[in-house]
Design a protein that fits this description.
alpha+beta, four-stranded antiparallel beta sheet
């Protein structure tokens, strides 16, 4: 899997989120602890979440 660091991650490395994707899922992990379990979501759910973040619609 190819992991990509979020552009929202801090340069200091304190808050680092990485994602990887395949045909059906988006996988999310904490780059500081890559061996702990990952979270995964469907592509549609991820797209909706990313749009909400970009539009600042999250509580």
């Amino acid at each position: 899997m190819k992991w990509i660091k979020s552009s929202f991650s801090e340069a200091s490395g304190n808050n680092c989120v990485e994602i990887a994707q395949n045909r059906h899922l988006i996988v999310i992990r904490d780059s500081k602890n890559p061996k702990i379990p990952w979270a995964s979501v469907g592509r549609v759910a991820w797209s909706r979440f990313a749009s909400a973040v970009a539009e600042e619609r999250l509580p």
